[in-house]
Every structure is written in C-alpha cells, then in structure tokens.
Amino acid sequence: MALIKYKPRTPGTRAVVKVDRSHLHKGGPRLDLTAHQSKTGGRNHFGRITTRHHGGGTRQKYRLIDFKRDKDGITGRVERLEYDPNRTGHIALIKYPDGEWRYILAAKGMKAGDEVRSGADAPIKSGNAMSLRHVPVGSLIHNVEMKPGRGGQLARSAGSSVSFTAREGIYAYLRLKSGETRKVHIDCRATIGEVGNDEHNLRSYGKAGAKRWKGVRPTVRGLAMNPVDHPHGGGEGKTSGGRHPVTPWGQPTRGYKTRNNKRTDAFIVSRRAK
C-alpha cells in the first residue's frame, strides 16, 4: 500500500495524508452479514454523557466478523477485501464451497483469490486459523482467543500481532506489543500472521471535520476551563493548580494504576513495559 498526499489547493487538503485503498471493493458490504448500529452520542439510558467526545458521525452498518474461525476442514476462498468503518484493519469476504459467506480480519499480504483454512490440518500460512497447540513457537499471530471458543480478543487492530514465545504444559506464552507477557490455554485459537493495513497509523486527517465524520467530538483542555469545570481550570495565566495532572473528576492520569481484575492476574507473567 502507498500513501496519498494532496496538493494544497485548499486549507483542508494541505495536511491530508491518506492510505491508498484502490485495492478494496468499491461497493457496499453483503447485507446479510451486517447489523443495524444506532448512535448513542456517548450517553446512557438517562441521557447523561458517560463517554466524552462521542457524537455525530456518518451512519454505519456493523459488519458481522467471524472471530471464532470455527469452520474446520473446509477451504474458503477470498472473494474480495473491504473497508470496515468499525475497525482500523480491513476485512476479507470468504466464500466456502457449501455456499456460506463469512467476513474475517484480513491478514497482511492477503488478496482476492487466496485460500484460507482453519483447524488442526490447516497449513502454517498467513490467514489460516488453528489452536495454539498446533502453532509453531516463534510465530507471529493475531485474533487470539483468551478462552477456548470465545472468539479472538487479542491483536485485532491494524498492523497488530502477538509473538508466540513458548509452550509449557497446557499454556502458551504470548508477548504482546505493549511488552506484557501473558499465559493463554493452548486450546485457544489464533490466526497466523499480522493484521493488514499496517500503514493506518501514518494517516493524517488534515482537518477537524474529518474527525467529526468519524463521530469524534472536540476535546477541550482542562487548562482552558473554569475551576468549576476542571481541577486544572482557572488561574491568572497558565497553572494547573499546583497539582499533578488529573481527570475532570480528580483521578490521576499519569502512572496511576487503574487495573483491578484479580481473577486474571495469574495469567500475566510480566507486566507491560513502562
């Protein structure tokens, strides 16, 4: 894939950098593999904002992705690659010989006409899915399950992957991009290779309106607010009130550990790099 830059004929295109999507399908998705998706505007059932900076955006349909990859022993063919507005990576439309269609995450290097397979007898090839007990140690994998049969949860965004570093007993040891090493049961499934569209992070939106198309509303700095609205607000000039950076509700934002899930602590071998 290549990056596309525009001549600065207007202020809105001066800083725009896009990722070439000429290889993707030009039409809409398969409607039987989509679901209705309503906007919440970041509000709960009381109408109060619970997630800031959400709202607006283009109307979208949710694509039903096969994260479980449980259609074993049948070779599917990649019909086409598509853009998915709900995720950073691209998706692939798979056609199986029995007439079933499914969407999967498009692996890096995947193209129309490729064959994909899942199960213990699947070859070690990018885009194929199998249990971790059948994956060679040292492989790069994505769409990794955390519980057998639940469906992939780890490494699903554009360009992401997990390193399969060791296998010991009934557990596989995985090193995540964050630096964390985690234990996962070897019956959990994963897909070989990396997620495609790895140049996604090089995109520059170029103007505020492009973020509004995505449903992202403006973010106001706490420093620019009044004291009644934010702990950093007020002051004659720039001041944060003589305190460390905090959220609007007073919770520290730098170095303060918020994880509280003792149930899964035993599966983390080493914490992420600071």
What report would you give on this structure?
The structure is a single chain. The chain is mainly β and 274 residues long. It is built from one helix and 17 strands. It has one helix at 208-213, and strands at 3-5, 17-19, 34-36, 61-63, 76-82, 91-95, 101-105, 115-116, 129-131, 140-142, 144-145, 152-154, 162-168, 171-175, 181-185, 189-192, 268-270. It has a seven-stranded antiparallel beta sheet, with no helix packed on it. Strands 7-6-5-8 form a four-stranded antiparallel beta sheet, with no helix packed on it. A two-stranded antiparallel ribbon has the order 1-2. The radius of gyration is 22 Å and the shape is globular. The two termini are 32 Å apart. 22% of the residues are buried. The model has no long low-confidence stretch (mean pLDDT 94).
The total beta strand count reads 17
* Overall radius of gyration: 22 Å
Order of helices and strands: EEEEEEEEEEEEEEEEHE
Separation, N- and C-terminal Cα atoms:
32 Å
Based on Cα principal axes, name the global outline. Answer: globular
The fraction of residues assigned to DSSP E strands is 15-25%
Task: Identify the quaternary structure here.
Answer: single chain
Proportion of helical residues = under 10%
Number of helices: 1
Provide a quick synopsis of the model.
This protein is an all-beta fold and 274 residues long.
